[in-house]
Every structure is written in C-alpha cells, then in structure tokens.
Amino acid sequence: MASVSNSLSFKHGLSLWCPQSPSLHRIRHSSAKNFQRRGFVVAYSSFANENREFVIVGGGNAAGYAARTFVEHGMADGRLCIVSKEAYAPYERPALTKGYLFPLDKKPARLPGFHTCVGSGGERQTPEWYKEKGIEMIYQDPVTSIDIEKQTLITNSGKLLKYGSLIVATGCTASRFPEKIGGYLPGVHYIRDVADADALISSLEKAKKVVVVGGGYIGMEVAAAAVGWKLDTTIIFPENHLLQRLFTPSLAQRYEQLYQQNGVKFVKGASIKNLEAGSDGRVAAVKLEDGSTIDADTVILLPYDQ
Ligand SMILES: Cc1cc2nc3c(=O)[nH]c(=O)nc-3n(C[C@H](O)[C@H](O)[C@H](O)COP(=O)(O)OP(=O)(O)OC[C@H]3O[C@@H](n4cnc5c(N)ncnc54)[C@H](O)[C@@H]3O)c2cc1C
Predict the structure, then answer these.
(1) pLDDT tens-digit map of 93-126
(2) Which domain holds residue 199?
(3) Are residues 157 and 38 in the same domain?
(4) Where's the FAD/NAD(P)-binding domain (predicted)?
(5) Is 96 inside a domain boundary?
C-alpha cells in the first residue's frame, strides 16, 4: 500500500487515462449501461456503493480543469469523483496572492468569484456546477493511502473507494523553515490555500512592518499587496536582483525602481539565519547571516514549493 503525500511512490503502474485517449472515446460511444475493465464493474450513475469509475485525488487547479474536460467528453455524470483535502471546490490558486490580498476596502477577490475555470475565460465551476454535472465531490477528507493492485483508496475519515482509473493531482506544498529557527512562530506565513491567505489577511489587518522572503513572482505580488495595505514592507532574497532566473539585470532594475517608488525596501544577497520572537511569542525580527536584523511583526516566507 502506498502512502499519499505530495510525492507519491507507486509500486505498480498507475491506471491513468488522458481524456483524449482512444480508449475514452470507445467508452463514450458505448451504449452499455455498465462497463467492465480489469474485472471492475461500475454502474454509470450510481454512487450508492464504494465503486467509482474515475477518481481524482486532489481538488486543486488541475482537478477543476480535468473535471471540465470530463464534462466536455460526456464522461462526468455519475462517473467522476473528486476527493479533496480542502473545503472548497477547485479554484484558481494564483488569485490568492493577487486580488485576494487586496485591502478590504478595495473589493478583494473572494470565492465563489475565482473557482476554476475562470482563469482561462471558462465557466465558473461552483459547488453547484459539480452537482449539476453529476460529479461527486468529497471535501475535507484527504486520501491517506492508495492500493494500486486492488485499485482502492482510503480517506482520512476511513472512507474506502474502489476506482476504475485514478488521476493523482495533489500539487505541492510550501517548504517551511524549521521550527528551531522560528519557521512556525505566530505571524510567520506561507501561502498555498485559502486558509493560508485568510490567516495572512488577519495578520495584515494588525501589521505595521512586513518582511517578504523571496524575490520571485509571488514575493513581488505579496509585497505589492502589503504596500497596498500601507505597511512598511521589505523584500529579502539571496539573489542579486528580483526574479534572477527570468529577468535580465536591466529589466529587474526597472521593477525594483517601481517597487521602491511605492515604498518597498530591498535587502539583496541576504540569507536568513533565524526568525526571532518578541516577548509576546510572535515573530518580532528577521536575523540575517551577516548579523543584521530587520524588525517585522509579519513575515511571509516564499522560498519555493516542494
Ligand atoms: C499563491 C500562489 C500563486 C500562484 N500564482 C501563479 C501564477 O500567477 N501563475 C501560474 O501559472 N501559477 C501560479 N501558481 C502555481 C499554480 O497555482 C499551480 O501550478 C497550480 O495550482 C497547480 O495545480 P495542481 O492542481 O497541480 O495543484 P494544486 O492547485 O496545489 O492542488 C492540489 C490539491 O490537492 C490537495 N491535496 C493534497 N494532498 C491531498 C490528498 N492526500 N488527498 C486529497 N487532496 C489532496 C491539496 O489540498 C490541493 O487542494 C501559484 C501558486 C500559489 C500557491
């Protein structure tokens, strides 16, 4: 039995179909009410038992777009089940560091406004959309193990499902600073989902000095949001300029000037030694390897996803 994390290791070949594959067309054009595959019989429209024809593990961006494709191919109704760790139907995750972080008086983006597939100009797939399309959604019940040979999976609540084909779309997680260097202090944030973004907004409402660690796209977005909240904002990163992997030095310089004109400070070529707590136990400062410290009541760590 394989245990499920964001890096799944399966001992046996995964039964994973591309919706464009000829085998799917064969099923779509079949008039049979039931079909049999590797001895696995599924009623087309019944979720009454533990048998599911198609299961997607993970309810993120990929799941939302895959669901749309299943619907387009007439393969969703009564046949597709999505098992999600989150409490929400799939949404456009990139919104979390864009419109979602706008100050509260600037009409920030909120669900259901950015469910997939609005990011590509598609339909807004609300929870009702999944119901209408006959797609079973299991929320807040992460898959804890998958048995590839038996084609079964178990969720955290103990639900057992048998699948015909499985799509694993569990995305990744934000890498965290270790606890011993302050990576879990109150006021320290990572952003992957709505709950993370809501926690950050709660901090921003009370914050005065914000430090963003990471000079990539998401760091730039979060810093722009923080100055939108009129907060003292510093971006720290180890490279020589913003978006070192993508921007030329001259392009980066133009962005850095724009950010500086809006009040953002930069600490470049810097590595973090640890995050320090104040007397109230919340993060109070970021200590750098060169011995200097930067005061902060809110720190957003965006090193990389894993
Ligand atoms: C803040 C932020 C901003 C971004 N901005 C951009 C951008 O501007 N442009 C861009 O191209 N990309 C951006 N990205 C990246 C983009 O969001 C991802 O590439 C995309 O979300 C990947 O989709 P996915 O479905 O593979 O994973 P995810 O969207 O991460 O979805 C995975 C889902 O699986 C769930 N899950 C994990 N384990 C289990 C389990 N065991 N059981 C059940 N469910 C599980 C997770 O909770 C999650 O809901 C951004 C990402 C973040 C976090």
Answers:
(1) 999 999 999 999 999 999 999 999 999 999 999 9
(2) 179-301
(3) yes
(4) 54-301
(5) no
What ipTM did this prediction achieve?
0.99
SS3 of 36, please? strand
- Name the residue with tokens 């898959």: 143
CA atoms of 165 and 80, how far apart (whole Å): 10
User: What pLDDT, on the 0 to 100 scale, is given for residue 305?
Assistant: 67
pLDDT digits (tens, 9 = 90+) for 167-186: 999 999 999 999 999 999 99
Q: Which residue, judged by its Cα, is nearest atom 38 of ligand 1?
A: 170
Same domain membership, residue 208 and residue 132: no
Cβ–ligand 1 distance for 142 under 6 Å, the answer: yes
194 lines ligand 1 (CB under 6 A): no
Q: Indicate which atom in ligand 1 lies nearest the CA of residue 60.
A: 31
One-letter amino acid for residue 55 of the chain = V
Q: What is the largest CA-CA distance in the chain?
A: 72
Do residue 219 and residue 138 come from a single domain? no
**Does the beta carbon of 24 lie inside 6 Å of ligand 1?**
no
- Give a yes or no: residue 174 inside a domain: no
Nearest CA to ligand 1 atom 12: 94
